[in-house]
Amino acid sequence: MSDGRASVAFIGPMGSGKTSIARRVAKRLDVPFADTDAMVVAEHGPIADFFSEHGEAAFRRVERDAVVDALTRGGIVALGGGAVVTDETREALAHHHVVLLTVSERTIRSRIRGAKRPLLNAADPIAEWSRIAAERRPIYEALADVTFDTSSGPLRLVVDSAAEWAADRLGIAIDRRDTA
Fold first, then answer.
1. Which terminus of the chain faces fewer neighbouring Cβ atoms within 10 Å, N or C?
2. 60 labeled part of a ligand binding site
3. Of the candidates 111, 54, 42, 53, which has an alpha carbon nearest to the alpha carbon of residue 81?
4. Residue 86 domain-assigned?
């Protein structure tokens, strides 16, 4: 590892592809992968249920713990879209490499349709997504070391670019001719 930082974290708004892209990057680099939302679900049950029973503040606490645990293990970590709203999570990310995935509102329409996302239980989920994404954008941008847009084009191209970037940060040699 070039500078001692062992993790690459993927952040971004809901539906930007953090889990699917980060998982493929980890596989390509042959490093551990963790999805903090999946970690929370494994320990506490469905996120929507946890939200409705305990509220957002309690969820952010268990989410923060999952993020810190995953980052400590090293490798590639996909964070939930709102994980960055807590100070402790932002502080933990400061010691790791951070990839921001962005996505257009036009593209998000098809990605979140019918999805069970507790913060999008509004009359107009797309408008709510846009509001949340705009509110968090400055945090995402402040934390990001690099940004990739997932709105168009083959997913493979984003995976290839992110894998090359992550490999350089983690000191991993990869065959640049490989495809994900």
1. N
2. yes
3. 111
4. yes
